[in-house]
Amino acid sequence: MSSLAYKLAVLVFLENPYGEHLLLLRAKAPNLGSWSPIGGKLETALGESPFECAVRETHEEVGLEITAADLHLFAMIAEKAYEGQSHWLMFLFRCKKPLAALPPDISEGKFGFFSREKINTLPLPETDRTALWPIYDQYRDRFVTLKADCAPGQPLRVEIEEIV
Fold first, then answer.
1. Spans of all domains in the chain
2. CATH C-level class of 5-163
3. Mean pLDDT of the region 78-101
4. Which residues of 3-40 are buried (b: 16+ CB within 10 A; e: fewer)?
5. What percent of the chain has pLDDT over 90?
């Protein structure tokens, strides 16, 4: 395998007061045309922590003011060779503060609230469908570290490294 860049990112799982999940219909790559939780890359040049990034991205993308105390880090997943383009170290957070209303559209896409059952019928990135949402379902109140081999042309392999 050729040398690929490593990217650090967060995903933030937000819900409204009715337990519906906020998803963004991505208008840009990666995941163009797919629904996914909000998130973004860490500002590594600034030494930003995953919690700081999650707080910043939540404010930038949906306008919700939160603090690190409003977040529960429930998973860390190392994705090898995602779309053959780069490796990702992803930090998955569940926001404990509900989002009252649907945020306005942003340059990265438009938002929707969906029940957990409805999410299964949406166009999702394949790794979200086969790994991310099952991880959320099983570990959202705990903490798990995983690694996933996402090499193109190979079946997705996800392996648990530790559960706390």
1. 5-163
2. alpha beta
3. 88
4. eeeebbbbbbbbbeeeebbbbbbbeeeebeebbbbbbb
5. 72
